[in-house]
Design brief:
single chain
Length: 201
């Protein structure tokens, strides 16, 4: 199985992003490097933290705001559960979600999954591309959603507008994604311009 080692977020000033990832307890899987490239608008992906219950979502939202993240979608109930979203100082969209709508107690501090969700033009084409690179599909819903088995960072692909809607941001943008995926299939660039780097690099 090809796995993702970590995600590299690029920022003009890495310090605020590093503080946020540290506060959220994911700095082992999200790292930051300096880049002067400045995208305009949505960066085309989200980092999603899946937790047991609404109290965990609320706790993470509070932690993120304390680390200077901006709320883009206040936490609320929906058909699928409970969740909210913030934007980091470098422009990365971060979502927090639980499939449970009801609290069973205080926040647990447990992170069930860390997901890198790519917003793509054509989910089926993305699935074909990545399976050709050796990634195994875990879950797939036709042209709407695909999830790959990539270890401690789960890679998924959804339509770009859908990803932006969940993050509470406008889907339009221009410029670089300012993000690289570090793992076993790099180096390469996928059809939507997302870059993979090798572990050796």
């Amino acid at each position: 199985m090809s796995t993702i080692s970590h995600i590299l977020i690029e920022a003009a000033d890495p310090a605020p992003s590093e503080r946020l990832w540290e506060a959220l307890g994911i700095s082992d899987r999200l790292q930051v490097r300096t880049s002067e490239a400045e995208p305009d608008g949505f960066r085309g992906f989200t980092v999603s933290l899946v937790v047991p219950g609404p109290s965990d979502v609320d706790a993470l939202m509070d932690t993120a705001q304390a680390a200077d993240a901006t709320v883009t979608d206040p936490a609320s109930r929906s058909l699928w559960g409970y969740g909210g979203a913030v934007r980091s100082a470098d422009g990365t969209s971060v979502t927090f979600a639980s499939s449970s709508k009801k609290d069973s107690g205080a926040a647990t501090g447990v992170l069930e999954r860390l997901i890198l969700q790519l917003g793509v033009d054509d989910v089926a084409s993305t699935r074909t591309f990545y399976t050709a690179q050796g990634l195994s599909v875990g879950t797939s819903y036709g042209k709407r959603y695909v999830e790959f088995e990539t270890g401690s960072v789960t890679l998924t692909a959804v339509r770009r507008k859908t990803v932006a809607k969940v993050a509470g941001v406008d889907p339009t943008s221009s410029g670089a994604h300012r993000m690289a995926i570090v793992g076993g299939i790099g180096p390469l660039t996928d059809p939507d311009g997302f870059v993979w780097e090798s572990l050796e690099a």
